[in-house]
Each structure stands twice: as C-alpha cells, then as structure tokens.
Amino acid sequence: MKKLRLKILIYPKFQLRLIISSVLLNLTAFLILYLNVDYFFDSLLNAGQMAGAISGDPFFTFVQNQKEKLTQLIVLSLILSTLITSIIILWISQKIAGPLYRLQVYLKYTIETGDIKKLSFRKGDYFLEIADLINELLKKK
User: DSSP string of 42-98?
Assistant: First the structure.
C-alpha cells in the first residue's frame, strides 16, 4: 500500500507568490467596490442635505445605518472570498508544483545513481504528458 503524504507547500516561493498575488487582486477588487459604495452613500447624504433635511433627520440615520451594514457585508465577503480563493490557488498550485518537484527528484536520482526508471506523476496532476515524453526519450537511449 502506498504511503499517503501531504505536503502543503511543495515549492513555497512559487505557491506563496501565487496566493499573495490572488489576495492582492481580491483586496484591490474589494477596495474598488468599497470606494464606490462609500461614494454612493456620501452622494445620498449630500442629496439629503441639498433637499433641506436637517441634522438628526431619520433619513441621515437610515442612510448611515445602511452604509455600516453594507460595509460589514463587504468586509465579511472579502474575508470569505480571500479564504476560498487562497484554498483554490493552493490546490491548483499543488497540481503544478507536484509534477515539477517529482521531475526534480527523478532527475537528481537518475543523475546520482545512473538508474533509469519510469517517471510518473500523480493522477490529476498537470503536465502528465511531460512524464510520457521523458519516458519515451529514455527508451530510445
């Protein structure tokens, strides 16, 4: 029976860079959204003032409460979205980094020992065709 080994970060520099990039993109999108929401509610408050509503008017309280609630929802959405995106990016990066790591280990082993074995990647990994090409190349040697 094969030993199941879970290594979360196979190539930490590559995988963390992908995750950080996705988090920064997520933050940027939510910042743009928040700035637009803030502008919208400020416009509503200004419209209330221009319409003659006085300070303490229920309109201002209502608008301010809605702005606060929406801001809380935006922050919650940002946190959830960032968490979900990071998990997905980590999962996808495993499918990329895994074969590269396996290829590196295979090449080092082959160079050090001279023993040529069949190269294989995990089912579901990306770049399965690279293992096939390397195996085909080594058959011709």
Answer: HHHHHHHHHTTPPTT-HHHHHHHHHHHHHHHHHHHHHHHHHHHHHHHHHHHHHHHHH
CA–CA gap between residue 102 and residue 94 (Å, rounded): 12
- 62/48 Cα distance (integer angstroms): 11
- Please tell me whether residue 119 adopts helix, strand or coil conformation: coil
Query: What's at 64, amino acid-wise?
Result: Q
For the stretch 11-64, pLDDT in tens is 899 999 999 999 999 999 999 999 999 999 999 999 999 999 888 899 999 999
Classify 117 as helix, strand or coil. Answer: coil
DSSP reduced 3-state for 6: coil
> Does the predicted model carry a pTM greater than 0.90?
no
Ramachandran area for residue 127 (φ above 0: left; ψ -120 to 50: alpha; else beta):
left
SS3 111: helix
Domain boundaries, the chain: 12-140
Sorted by sequence, the CB contacts under 8 Å of residue 117 that are 6+ apart come out as: 106, 109, 110
Nearest to 64 by CA among 87, 96, 84, 40: 40
